[in-house]
Amino acid sequence: MPGMTEPYLREKFANALDGLATGTGELWERVRNAMVILVMFGPDDMPDKFSREQFAELLYRSTDREADADEGQLAATLERMDTDDVRELAGVIVRLHNHFVRRTDAAYAAEQEPSGSA
């Protein structure tokens, strides 16, 4: 995404995390709502190898089932997952958010792989 910055990523992940923690509905619904915020990004928008790999896995696992009607792949996948799998996806969102917050510390960020490396 052109012009995408780490502060913008942190903001969107914070919004997603807030919905996970304070939203209403079942866990799969809160994860779906969090993912609606995050699907604007792709793995290449992530600043380092860890976040690219984690985000790619999150996207894949949250949309790997075909929709039966007009509910969309995200809802179709999450509705059919067991609670432990949905909880794992929520955990990935939390870990990524924490990682982006920790990257504001220069020492932690320096330990991460640079953005342009594969």
Short account of what is shown:
The chain is an all-alpha fold and 118 residues long. The protein contains six helices and no strands.
Task: Tell me what you see in this structure.
This protein has one domain. 66% of the residues lie in helices and 0% in strands. The protein is built from 6 helices and no strands. α1 (6-22) packs antiparallel against α5 (83-102) and α2 (27-38) crosses α5 (83-102).
Structural class: mainly alpha
Shape: globular
Number of helices: 6
Q: What is the number of independent domains? A: 1
Instruction: Please compute the radius of gyration using only Cα atoms.
Output: 14 Å
- Helix-strand string: HHHHHH
Enumerate the spans where pLDDT stays under 50 for 5 or more consecutive residues.
Answer: none
Share of helical residues: 55-70%
Average pLDDT number? 87
Largest sheet: none
Please give the number of β-strands: 0
* Intertermini distance: 18 Å
What percent of residues are in strands?
Answer: under 5%
Which helices and strands, and how do they pair?
Layout (H helix, E strand, L loop, with lengths): L5 H17 L4 H12 L10 H14 L9 H9 L2 H20 L3 H6 L7
Helix pairs in contact: 1-2, 1-5, 2-4, 2-5, 3-5
Descriptive keywords:
single chain; 118 residues; mainly alpha; 66% helix
